[in-house]
């Protein structure tokens, strides 16, 4: 009996075939990344043009893609669609969150068992950021906010946090891809503080990591969006919709699923997207008034507008900005009358003429009229089955 036990003990110490296969998929390193160890230089440049990051496999959520991605801001609007697309191809996704443990729980169902890993962190604690980034080889920054709060300013959220992530990713030494999601129209000369902070964040990331990829999506449309949902809710509650400045500003809204697909396409390529800036706009250009007409058509209500001149709109939204940090309690978040968004809508926001777009990533963006806005049927007076607004037949097989 003792001989059998000794023989089994010696066999248990030998590397099995399964462990060898795991090592071939995940090469183990003797270096441990932490705050007490030496810092490494960025390896992004050495990976450019070195082949595809995604490894071949059986495909599907139970395969192994080779991507271990830390997605900052994954609990937001774009985050859920990006995590879903990463998870369905067999990637492991680390989800940093700073609120309740219930915030990321809807993401855990998108991947195979143990592939979606929520990790609590503090964006102001460098060590906690290093901890959620330690095992990753891809970092995607989706952090952004279009209004200020008492705790976080435009500059801290959209500029300094992005710069901090780039610095830590550079020191990491094992990050193969860094993707910064900015905003279409970001410029240091913009009248909007949000767009100026986004532009400063882009410059800071590219200064630290010249091989990073920057995605600049236009106004995103989807089930949880912050534009058409707010319009429909306001129109149902007050029976009219305010059009700031007459709604003549031109925008190029994009379906959120297409933006997530663009990010995944950049990860799948051979490194040709590294160091590039992509402007992601939809196939059609709308004025704000025309987009509101599409919203009214979908919810089956008669369009009723109130034209609000820019000076009056700014006066309505000014009290929150003045009192934000002067009162001892948090103020409501702005919906329609957001002073910074009013400044942003004073100029047209469309894709530049010579910019890299969806086409350069091999993606054809979807038209908004049809399935992408069908989520608005929840606002119909007669219920979701009160008619149909799909004017173009969409082939389910061609839809992601």
Describe the protein.
- With 400 residues, the protein is of the alpha/beta class.
- Helix content is 34%, strand content 12%.
- The chain is built from twelve helices and 13 strands.
- It has helices spanning 2-13, 17-25, 44-47, 77-87, 126-133, 154-172, 193-208, 228-238, 256-268, 288-299, 310-323, 339-344, and strands at 68-72, 92-97, 116-120, 138-141, 177-181, 213-217, 220-221, 241-244, 250-251, 254-255, 277-280, 286-287, 305-308.
- It has a seven-stranded parallel sheet with strand order 3-2-1-4-5-6-11, sandwiched between helices. Strands 7-10 form a two-stranded parallel sheet.
- Helix 6 links the parallel strand 4 and strand 5.
- Helix 6 runs parallel beside helix 7 (193-208).
- The chain is globular.
- The model is unreliable at 1-40 and 388-394 (pLDDT under 50).
- InterPro entries: ComplexI_NDUFA9_subunit, Epimerase_deHydtase, NAD(P)-bd_dom_sf.
- One of its GO terms (cellular component) is mitochondrion.
- Residues 70-281 form the NAD-dependent epimerase/dehydratase domain.
Topology:
Blueprint: H1 2-13, H2 17-25, H3 44-47, E1 68-72, H4 77-87, E2 92-97, E3 116-120, H5 126-133, E4 138-141, H6 154-172, E5 177-181, H7 193-208, E6 213-217, E7 220-221, H8 228-238, E8 241-244, E9 250-251, E10 254-255, H9 256-268, E11 277-280, E12 286-287, H10 288-299, E13 305-308, H11 310-323, H12 339-344
Parallel strand pairs: 1-2, 1-4, 2-3, 4-5, 5-6, 6-11, 7-10, 8-13
Antiparallel strand pairs: 9-12
Helix pairs in contact: 4-9, 5-6, 6-7
GO molecular function: protein-containing complex binding
Domain NAD-dependent epimerase/dehydratase: 70-281
Protein name: NAD-dependent epimerase/dehydratase domain-containing protein
